[in-house]
Every structure is written in C-alpha cells, then in structure tokens.
C-alpha cells in the first residue's frame, strides 16, 4: 500500500521567520493558519510556543485538524510531523468499513455539511470552516483570490487561473497598442519636420538685404533647426519608447503563458479523473456494504444457506472497497495539493510579471515625457540666433549698405551759366 | 522782364543752428557750402564770422560764386542777400551780347570746363567745383547719393529717383512675401494640430486600468492639449504677424508712390523742354551775333549800302537774343532748382518710409519669436499632469483595484474527507 507523501509547506520565502524557542519551527497550513512543531518531540500546536510550552493541547478535533482532516496515528494521537503527511493505513482503526453505520452516517453528514466539491475542487463550506487567513494579507495577492471557477458572459466555465492568464495576455496587447500610438506620434513628428524643412528653403523675401535681411534669413533657417529638433525627437521616440514597448516581453512570453496554461489545466484534468475515481470507489463501497448487510441479515434470519464463509468473504470485499476508497481519496487529495502548490507558485509569478509590466511601462512613458521636455527646450533655443539678429537690426546701417551699392551720383546739380 | 525768384534755402530742419555773432545768419548753398549773411549790412561771406568780421572778402570770382555763378549787382558788388536771387537784368552790364568776343569766349570756355549738362541736368565738373559737402554727412542719406541718372542692364536710362522708388516698391513686395511665409507656417501648424488632435482620440490601450490607465489616458489627452497650443500659436501668428505684414502699408502706398513718381518725372520733363529752349535761344543768339558781325564788317569796308540804321537794328536783335537766352537760362535754372527741392524733400520722405518699414518688420518678426517662445512654454506645461500621474503609478494599487473587480473566490481548497 503506498504511503503518499504530501507536503503543504509554503515556498520558503513565504514562511515567516520568527523567533521561537529552541527546537521549534513554524509552518503555514493550507488554510493559512500558522502552526508550530517541536522538532525533537514532534509536538504540534496552533499556539505559539513560549519556553514553558511542553505538551500539545488535547482538545477537540478541529484544533488539531490540518486542512480540516483529523490526522490520527495508531495510538490516536494527532500525527506529529506535519511536513510529512504519512497515512497510517491501519485497516482496523482507519478503515471506514470498520466503523458502525451510525458513525459512518455522522461522518458522511459531516462531509456533506462542512465541505463542497465544485468542478472537482473541494472547498470548505464557509460557515463551518475555521476562518481561513489570507496567504498574503493586505497585498491583494493573486494567490489569495482566484481559487474558484466562474462563468463568463457566454455561460462557459472559466478557472480563476485563466482570468489571471488573460490579464497577462491583455497586458501584452496593451503594450502593443501603446507602441502603435507612439508610432503614430512619430509619423506626425516626421511630417511636421518635413514641412518645416521644406518651408525653410522657400525663397520668400530672399532679396531682403542688410541687417534686416540677415535676421529674416536666420528666421527662415530656424525652421530647419526646428525640423531637426523634431526629427531627433521622433528618432528617440522610436528607439527609447516604441521599440522597448514592443520588445520588453519577448516572443517567449506567449510561450511561457501557454506553458503555465497547459500545466495548470493538466493538473485540473488530473483532479477531474481522480475525483471520478473517488466517486466510483464510493459507489463500489456502498454496493459492497449493502451486500454485506443483506447477507448478514439473511444469516440472522437463516433465510438462506449462506455460510459464515460467505459473510467473511463479503466482509473482506467490503473492507477492500473501503481501502480502495481511501486510496482514491488520498490520490485525489494529493492531486489537489499539487494543483494548489502550482497555483500559488504560478499566480505569484504572474503577479510579479504584472508588477514588472506596470513598472516598465511607467518607466517608458516617463521617458516619453522627458523627451517631450527636451524637445521643447531645444526648440526654444532655435530662436536665440533669431532674437540676436533681430536685436541688431539697424535701419541706418542697412541704408548705408544699400546706398553704397546702389547710389547713382553724389554730385549735386548747379545752375547753368549763360 | 521777369525777375525770377529762386530760393535754394534748405528745408528748415536742415539748417544748422549755430551760435553766431548778433545779426548773422547761416545758409547752405546748393553746392552744400555754408555761408553767412549779416542781416543788417547784407554782407555775405564763406567764412564764419567772429565778432571782428565786418567786411566781405573781395577775392577771386570762385569765392563769391554761389552755385558757380557770379552774382553781380549794378555796382559790381557781390549780390548781398542770398535768400533771394534777384537777377538785375541790366542790359548794359550783364548782357552777354555787350561783352567782347574774347571775353565771351573765355566765359564759354569757363562754361565748358566747369559744368556739364547730362540728360538736361547740369553738374559741376568734379575737378573744378568747390568741394560739395554732403547735405547730411555721415548719414548715407538718400538725398545725397541719387542725383545722377544711370543705365540699367538693358541699357535704358533710369533716374536716381526711380532707383529709390523701386526700392520702396520692392520693400512692399518683401513684406508681402514675408506674410506668405508666415501663412505657410500657419498652415503647417494647423496640420500638426489636427493630426495631434486626431491621434489623441484613438482608442489604443483604452482598456488599461488603474493608476497606469489614468497616466496613459492623460498622456493621450496631452496630445489634444498640445494641439490646442499649436492652434493658438497659428491663430496669433495670423493676427499679430501675418495680417500686419500684409496691411501696414495700405493700398494708398502704391498710389503715393505713383504720385511721387509722376511729380518728379514731370519736373524732369519740364527741365528737358526748358533746356531745349536754352539751346534754341543760344543758337538764335549765335545767329544774331554772326549777322551783326557780318554787317559791321561790311560797313567798315563799305561793302554794301547798309546804313548805320541797319547795324543798330542788328545790334538790337542781337541784344534781344541775348536777353532771350538769359531768360531761358533763368527759367531752366528755376526748373532745376524746383526739381532739386522736390528731390530732396521726396527722397527724404522715401528714406523715412524705409526706416519705418525696417523698424515695423523688425517689430513684427520679434513678435513671431515671442509667440514661438510662448508656444514652447505652453507646450512644456502640457506634460505636467502626465508627469504627476506617472509619478503616482502604483502596481500594488492597480492590483488591488483589479483583483477587487475580477476575483473569483478567496476560499482555498481543502482535503476531501472520506
């Protein structure tokens, strides 16, 4: 009989390091409750040990149930080492087949009232569960809020994990659209630069001379300088904003998402088949138990020629069916635990990716505004030489230059003599 | 016989006010030389009077010639009151007909060697003229440099005044072309604004939520703000630069230029016809003089039966022809003086208009650079709200918002019971 080893310990970084008395370690149960284990005596307790704590509490079942299930050793003690959940499959004590029907009924009732299995995943019914504490309180962490499936607007079932995955894929779409937006801005800037550059070369008033002509020529040239500034802007937009937006999640991103998707989906599928096995085993046990009961009754009223041998056989089969059921439930629980672990790990990874996405985009958009600031400043500076030359405009100087070039004669007319 | 009144005094503002001894006033001759007149004694002198100056210099002809011509009164004195050039048309003294041929010849020689008439305008021959001083020294004034005609590249004759006029008309063309340039800039700005405005409304990444979504939305909006800035720029360019450039010389300007053109041209035309009259009178005089000479010779050798009566008649005709010539020369000189005055006045007006044009354009182009500076500053400010929102981007907050909206369930799965 296999002894499943199931570990519910959280990833190491999730485990708080707290200062405990010597020999004690702390762990988090799947429900999120912290419990303490004495590594030498193997005592387990919910209560934080002080140096005076020696013996485990021996109170009602719930306090010592981890994951809602009582862990009994052969002696009836709570199983001491929580890291390793060894199932002591002692048939006599643990087999559901050996309990009285009444007790069984109670247990089944207990099962019905405290847990519910939806889409092959087993949850506590909220009222009866010991209050689960969030794995990462106050953080609104993905690993705390996406356990259940939901229905989409079309009525199809969507797992919580898929919601998380879709968000990541949408995030990639967002960055692509942002890059498109930047691309459009780049095109606008290039068009603007082209127009300014062309205009700067138009010959309007090219014949203006002197200091005014110089100022005007510089004003026209400043448009070419402005064009240069905008071209530089568009070029940097391309290399420092657009390109990173397009590429900071590489092609591998989608592959990784697919991988996660399939991995988690496979674990769910496995859970489905294991749950089916449990239901099948449960039914088979019920059949065997019914058979045993009938045969026992028949023996009592000497209804048939069934011998004690037959009853023993029926009892054996019943016991086996019980064992099968236990195994199936174990396998199921293992499968669920595995899925649980992968969900926590992977959803935290998606959470990390999302933080990274937001921070990266924030950084790139800041770069955008930085480039815009730069551009406006460079643009301002194109006016400086124009301002200077306008300052120097001098009508008298211009007249001197022009007259020197175009004068026709400075001898003034005189009276004609007779 | 008419007594032409010709005044060569400069416009009042051209006359230097200098501190002179009591009773003296200063004037500028047409050649630009300053001379001084004692308003009580009517003494005239080239030399600046100190309190000791009393009598006019009595030296060679040039020193007392104003406008290169000796002004002799009946007594032979230099004509005292220069403001009014009264020609004392005493026939006996002043008639060229009464001078000896030899003396006449000298005078003609003098005329040939000191003055030259080109296109009906009479100039001193540069070597012999008393050095003309500029009317407005160190100012490169229009009124000093455009007396002569010139030839254009096609070989046609162009007056100096026309050169000045063309400059003004060209100036109007320059301002029109500058306005066109600004119009083109306005169109470019409007195009840019339109493109930015359109892009700002594109739905790229509209689904981004939370603090990142807000920052992104503001970034997109900032393009609309930028568009607004550029529209305002183009609007102000239109009203504060383009429009004034087009309109600061009104339609009247061209009419005024035409008026000046015709006025000055008419005065030149009059000069042409008056010069023709002089030439005609000169020829007539020559004919009459020859006739007299012939008749006198004939009398002396008793060649014909001409009586003294005939000679007296011939002599009278000769004298008349001389008077005619003097009158024609006077009229010509008046015409030239009138043209001279109008040239000075009008060219100074054109000069003033040119200064005004340069200063106005300087002002409007400064307005252009001011608007550009403003625009860059307003543009910078469109980034402020974006920077602020980018500052506030918070992945944790965004996760909280998203998880609250999209979570599927926070109950964690538990082990199934048997």
From TrEMBL, chains A, B:
Q: Which GO terms describe its cellular component?
A: clathrin-coated pit; clathrin-coated vesicle; plasma membrane
**Residues of the WW domain:** 18-51
What's a BP term from Gene Ontology annotated to this protein?
Answer: neuron projection morphogenesis
Locate the compositionally biased regions of type Polar residues: 39-68, 89-103
Q: Name one Pfam family in it.
A: WW
Q: From which residue to which does any coiled coil extend?
A: 282-309
Specify the protein name.
Growth arrest-specific 7a
Query: Which InterPro entries does the record match to this protein?
Result: AH/BAR_dom_sf, F_BAR_dom, FCH_dom, GAS7_F-BAR, WW_dom, WW_dom_sf
Where do the segments described as Disordered lie?
A: 39-69, 89-111
The alphabetical list of record keywords is: Coiled coil
The keyword Coiled coil appears for this protein: yes
Q: What is the lineage of its organism?
A: Eukaryota, Metazoa, Chordata, Craniata, Vertebrata
What region holds the F-BAR domain? Answer: 138-398
